[in-house]
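Table S2 (continued). Query chain:
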Amino acid sequence: MTASDPAALRRSLYLLLTAVSVGIATAKIVGAENVYEPSRYTPSAGGYSKNPPDPERQWPTTRPEPTPTFSSNDKSRWATVRALVEEGTYVVGKRSNFQDQTGPWDEKGIIFLPDYRTLDKVMDPGTGEFYSSKPPLFPTVVAGEYWLLRTLFGWSIDRDRWLVMGAILLTVNVLPLAVYLLLLSRLIDDYAQTDFARLLVFTTACCGTFLTTFAHTLNNHVPAAYCALFTVYPLLSKRGTPAIDSPIKLLASGFFAGLTVTLELPAAALAAGLFVPLLIVRPGKTLAYFLPGLLVPVAALLYCNYAAMGSVLPAYSEFGGPWYNYPGSHWAKLGTPDARGIDFAHEAKTVYAFHLLFGHHGWFSLTPVWLLGAAGLGALTWRAGPQVKQLLLTRKTGPEGLWSLPLFGAMATAVSLVVFFFYVWKSNNYGGFTSGPRWLFWLTPLWLLGTLPAAGWVGKYRAGRLAAAVLLGFSVLSVFYPAWNPWRPPWILQLSELNGWVRY
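Corresponding output:
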């Protein structure tokens, strides 16, 4: 490499930043341990706390068992993994006297062990059997790896929890991260106009998004973001045969589009946003390759739903019904005076929408680098007008092919708006205790690529580069603020509660 070889220098920087990102994610996994934080517990008699916990929590009187599980969210999934491998069932617990409306109840099973206690469970009102409320396909795949580890090495998820959970998290969160960053760097090089844009966007991908925050916990949002990139990469890549003429690329894109849907149901908007233009331009190949690829993981999810609970519909479809609102359920509090806390935000939709974008759980307030993303996506959408018109009128692509960056930006903008309005319309839930707007995390690769035009423009000016660095710096602050547990309120919410501005 020489000073006159900027491409080689960029590749070296990409390599070093990838090593940093993968190293951080790996360190978070091998060092994972649930920490008991005094601020989350009720002060002892005579103690002082400006904002005591709500609801009240008592500090443990005996030493808790160490565990690398953190929240109801990941514990619910791990319970399914253990039940499948060790008991051959999706049932994670059972209430014997389930017809008793007042309790106390006779409850046994994995879900009632300390490492797996969770609010994210449903109960069959006819049998008293408990299931995870999370879609079962992902835990089923993870269970396959646990079975392999158990068979080859004799590891137990109870006795060898750090070995089992660590190995699985390295497989589902870290190894795909390295591939994700490699493919993203190629797309950045293909479409960025300046080196500043390339470095800003890639550095953001490595250290400035919540994918890093959630790397050491079992969740659907991080794999969904990887799959979203794996979906668009075959279509956008300028290497090899154009995607619209490549059965393999169409099949791969369709498969990962379907896989993204199984991890984040609103990602159906992404699948539709890709499917429709492809169908217009290449109807035969789209129906022959993209669509079957998409349907395979979706069919697998429906099959797992049926195998688990006797219905192809996910447990989410029962929300508000007897599967969720059984006696003693956390979710049965909805609409009662006991419905307090972040899970039951009693506020107007306009307030919820503000906080989801610019407030205490804000996409833009917590990771302000996305302000550049919004500007870039807006510019791309504006530029996409002629190509959209040509596509609709002539069913032909422009000189850049079907998926030019402007058309991609317009699609990403439309998908983002659909997802945002879906959550505003559907719920007032911020995702429980979570350090960021986790409903939106899977959009991360779309916004990274959408940031390129704005990053290129601000990079022309010294003040613009400084402003971009500040936005990235505050994004990194939010990403690393929950140092040991991502399932904690964002720093903006904690600051707001400390000063009495907001209290849930």
